[in-house]
Every structure is written in structure tokens, then in C-alpha cells.
Amino acid sequence: xxxxxxxxxxxxxxxxxxxxxxxxxxxxxxxxxxxxxxxxxxxxxxxxxxxxxxxxxxxxxxxxxxxxxxxxxxxxxxxxxxxxxxxxxxxxxxxxxxxxxxxxxxxxxxxxxxxxxxxxxxxxxxxxxxxxxxxxxxxxxxxxxxxxxxxxxxxxxxxxxxxxxxxxxxxxxxxxxxxxxxxxxxxxxxxxxxxxxxxxxxxxxxxxxxxxxxxxxxxxxxxxxxxxxxxxxxxxxxxxxxxxxxxxxxxxxxxxxxxxxxxxxxxxxxxxxx
Length: 274
Description:
The chain is 34% helix and 24% strand.
């Protein structure tokens, strides 16, 4: 039995999930086979728990999740948080101020909820996020005033801001980059923000310590900017075929794209050949 890599950390959007946000049936088969051989398959995603629940049912073999881009590490079987690090109230106001300036869409992600403005969620195409329209319609709590909502929280696990263009994202980033936060580019025009030093890599390190597995015995699979640190820290890194060239260049292996079981191909390579 191959024991070189004991954990395989898998990003979701653009990686585990196909373009239609479903999971390839062959990927499910390949994940189950790896788990049966003693390998932990772990979500390593920017998603909130509320956005993952339907996948827990499809993939009951996946016990642990590094979610909210590393802000929360979660045991999906026991439904408990293993560790957390959140954005404090002192920075929430500045993020809201910048979003208002650009008429951008705010998205608060707490352990319990995914929260958006009712006035924004009806036209997500304006924020280059139409692919998530159905998901947001289903799982988010819609509020009238995100500024007022922000004042109700002492801290928030993750805050996303979806701008109307990549140009406005760049401008918004310049206004926010000096805050002690971790900021990553996401999708076509979004910024993902977590507390300082919070990344998928840091969350994965916390889970690795919990499971007593060294980082060199972890493989990671991803496709985007917010996967970069995770891919740099693991013992074996895999880029999806649909990843940008910069992500492919930093990885040890390039697999098929997310619509053609790239995750399954990578898992089989890691488990059977390394």
C-alpha cells in the first residue's frame, strides 16, 4: 500500500467541481478508492459551510474541511469546528466602506451563515458571478443593509467583495492591501479576505498537526490564486488543466481539467504511482 502521501487536499470550485458545480461520477469513485486505501481526502476551499452541505451528502467519505480559505477547520462528520481565526470588527468597517465606494457586492461568511444584500443577489451577473446565482439564491440570508449587518458581528470568518470589473477590483485592492488581512483574487472580479496570516496553507497546517501528519506527506490539488500558498507548502502539488499558466508552473504535476475528472486522475497518480 502506498503511504507516501497520507492527505490529499482538494480545492472545490474549478477543481473538484465541474463547470456546472456538480462532481464527476468518476471523481467520486476515485476519491472513495483512495480513502479505502487509508488516504485522507480533505476539502481545501474558500467556501462557507452553508455552501458545502449538499456535497457532504455526495461525498460522505470526506471527513475534514479546511474552509473559508483556512479561517475554519471543520470536522464534517462530528459537525464541530476544530480551529478558527476571524476578521475583527475593527477591519469590517473599512471593507464595507470600500465596497460602497465601488457599488460592489459584499458577502459575509460566518460559521452559521452566508449573508448578502437582497438588492445585490438578484443581479449577480453585474458582479461577474452569475455562475453562482442558483447557489446564492438557495443558501444565503438576504438582508436590507450590509453595513448595519456588519455591526452586529464581533468577527467574521471571511468577507468577499465582488466588483463590477477587474479594473475596479484592482483599485479596491489598492485601498485594502495595507490592512492586516490576507487578500486573494478570486473569480473574474472578486477579492477574498480573511484574518492576517490566514490562508489555505495555514489551515491545512493546523489540520495536519491535529492528524499528526507532516506537510511533506500531504498532496494538494488546485487551480487558482487562493491555492498558491497551499500548493507551495505541500509535499506534492497538482495544477488542474484549467488552471492559469502561473499556477501550472509552480506545481509538480498537471492533471486534466475540472470537467474531465482531473481530480480523479491526480488522486490515482498520487496513490498508485508515487
